[in-house]
Amino acid sequence: MKRSYYVFNDEEEEPDFSSRKVLSRRPISIEDAEAFFIFGEMEFNTKLVNFLARHRVPVHFFNYFGFITARCFH
Fold first, then answer.
1. Percentage of residues in the chain with pLDDT exceeding 90?
2. Cα-based distances in Å from 33 to 52, 56, 59
3. Residues 38-53: what's their mean pLDDT?
4. CA-based nearest residue to 63, from 44, 42, 31, 40
5. Strand 59-62 and strand 68-72: pairing?
6. Spatial CB neighbours of 16, under 8 Å, sequence gap ≥ 6
7. Strand, coil or helix: 65
């Protein structure tokens, strides 16, 4: 069963991946991903965007206040 993934950044300059706030850094299977919901400041490269588009996985971007700012569909 596919699942949606919610990715948060608490607006720190540098995300602290060693803190307990990060629940997991395990790899995600693309076959398992239905959609990604991105909250806060993140950096992506075009390889990731192209990969997600090729596998038809939509990405939804939200601003600091939780309002949708952009969507990338297949």
1. 36
2. 10, 10, 10
3. 88
4. 40
5. antiparallel
6. 22
7. coil
pTM: 0.74
What is the band of 11 on the pLDDT scale with cuts at 50, 70, 90?
Answer: low
Helix (H, G, I), strand (E, B) or coil at 8: strand
DSSP string, 13-64: SS--TTSTT--------GGGEEEEEEES-----HHHHHHHHHTT--EEEE-T
Look at the block and give the residue holding tokens 């950044």: 9
DSSP state, 11? S
**How much is the average pLDDT of 17-28?**
57
